[in-house]
Amino acid sequence: GIKRNIIRESGGDPNAVNDWDINAQKGIPSKGLLQVIQPTFDQYHVKGTPDKLTDPVANIVAACNYAADRYGTMDNVDSAY
């Protein structure tokens, strides 16, 4: 599920930024491998990983924590975080 979502969300680019969706229009664009917005990253960030939204490990771990909390597992995610 993680790889599938990375390819769908960012094409594997850890510096990808979505500058067109509703989040971007509100000033909080999705960023990184799994296209996480800053408030989601801040809430689900794991201490010990870099406090940088586009860091691949920190982005993946925060997104996985969010997916587990919201959807039960990353495998159930079919949209942005």
Helix and strand topology:
Elements: H1 2-10, H2 22-25, H3 38-44, H4 56-71
Structure description:
By secondary structure, this protein is mostly helical. It has one domain. Helix content is 44%, strand content 0%. The protein has helices spanning 2-10, 22-25, 38-44, 56-71. Helix 3 packs across helix 4. It is globular and about 30 Å long. It starts with a helix and ends in a 10-residue tail after the last helix. The model has no long low-confidence stretch (mean pLDDT 93).
Record keyword descriptors for this entry.
single chain; 81 residues; mainly alpha
Q: Number of helix segments? A: 4
Unreliable stretches: none
Please report the total strand number as a whole number: 0
**Structural class based on helices, strands and sheet pairing:** mainly alpha
Q: Give the number of domains.
A: 1
**In sequence order, what are the helices and strands, one letter per element?**
HHHH
Task: Sum up the overall morphology in one term.
Answer: globular
Q: What is the compact description of this entry?
A:
This protein has 81 residues and is mainly alpha-helical. Helix content is 44%, strand content 0%.
